[in-house]
C-alpha cells in the first residue's frame, strides 16, 4: 500500500516535471548522446551474435513499442531522463537510426559491454566503450555532412549532453568471473579500478576532442546485491560485500575524476556524476528488493510478476522501470536527495549552459547594436 502511494506521488511529480520543463515540445538541450551497457541499451544488441539480448517478451511488456531490446519491463533510466529533458522521442540506437533525426542524438549503449574491450566477450561480444566512441565518430561525420562542415558540427556538438553509464560488466562479467577472464590474477581490486578509471578518462578526453562539453557520468549500483551475483555466491539472501566494495571504490574514483576534470576544463566543460554516494538510493520504498520480478530470469514468453512496481529487479540483473524512474528523477532534480548527484543535478547542468548562451547572445546583440 505504502508503495502504491509512493509511486503515485512519483508519477505526479514526473508529470509536473514534464509540464514544467517540456513546454512546447522544446527540449532543454538540442541533442543527447548515450554511451553504456544494458542499463541504457535500446536495441544495439538485437542483431549482434551475443547472448546479451532481450528483444523478446516479456522484456518491454510495459513499453509502448513492446520488446525493443531494452533490458527492462518499460523505460530505462536514460529514457526517462530523455523525457524529463523535454525530448519528444527516445534517442534511437546506433544500430537503427533510420527514420530518426541524428541531430537529436544517438544511443550507442550495448548490453554486456564494458570500459575494457574484452568485457562481454564470454557472452559472444558486445560493443565496448572504445567501439562506441568509434561509432560516434561515424555519426559526427554524418552530422558534419548535414551541417556543411566539421567546424559547424563541432559547434553544434558542444551544445549536446553526453551520458556515460558503464563499468558494472567490467566487474560482474570480467574481474569477478575468473573462469573467463584473467584480470583478477593480474590486478588487485584497487589496481583494476584505477585502470578502469584511467581508460574511462581517456575515452572522455577523446569525446572532449570531438565536441563533448557537458557530461553526466553514472556511478555503479550495489553490484553485490544483484540477484544473479547473490546466487553465484550462494549467500542465501545477503549482499556480497566484495562486489559492493568494488562498486564503492569505482564510485569514489569517479567522484575524484569529476573534480579533476572540472578543474582542468573549467573554461569550457562541466562534468557531473550521479549515484556515487554510498547509499545512493534506498530500496526500502520497494516491498521486494531481493528477488526478481521474473522468477526464472525473464526467459522468452515467461510470465512476469503482476505487481512490477513493487520490485527493484526485473530480471536477475536489471532493475524495473519503477526503480529506473526513481533513479532518473533523482539524477534530474536532486531536491529530494542532495547527495545523489555531484556537484549538481542534470537540471542545473542544463541551466549552466543556458546562462553561457545568454551571455553570448547578449554580447552579439550589443555588438550588433554598436554597428
Ligand atoms: C528502425 O527504427 C524505425 C523507427 O523507429 C522502426 O520503425 C523500425 O521498425 C526499426 N527497424 C528495425 C529493424 O528495428
Ligand atoms: C580498445 O579498442 C579501441 C577501439 O577499437 C582501441 O582504439 C583501443 O586501442 C583498444 N584498447 C586496448 C587497451 O586494447
Ligand atoms: C537462509 O535464510 C533463511 C531466512 O533468513 C533461513 O531461514 C535459513 O535457515 C537460511 N539457510 C541457510 C542454509 O543458511
Ligand atoms: C503481488 O501480487 C500478488 C497477487 O497478484 C500477491 O500475492 C503478492 O503478495 C504481491 N506481492 C507484493 C510484494 O506485493
Ligand atoms: C548585457 O550587456 C550589457 C552591455 O555589455 C551589460 O551592461 C548587461 O549587464 C548585459 N545583460 C545581461 C543580462 O547580461
Automatic annotation (TrEMBL):
Keywords: Hydrolase, Lipid degradation, Lipid metabolism, Secreted, Signal. The keyword Lipid metabolism applies. Its main location: secreted. Residues 1-18 form the signal peptide. InterPro entries: GDSL, GDSL_esterase/lipase, SGNH_hydro_sf, SGNH_plant_lipase-like. GO terms for molecular function: hydrolase activity, acting on ester bonds. GO terms for biological process: lipid catabolic process. Belongs to the 'GDSL' lipolytic enzyme family. PANTHER family: GDSL-LIKE LIPASE/ACYLHYDROLASE-RELATED (PTHR45650), TRIACYLGLYCEROL LIPASE (PTHR45650:SF33). This is Uncharacterized protein.
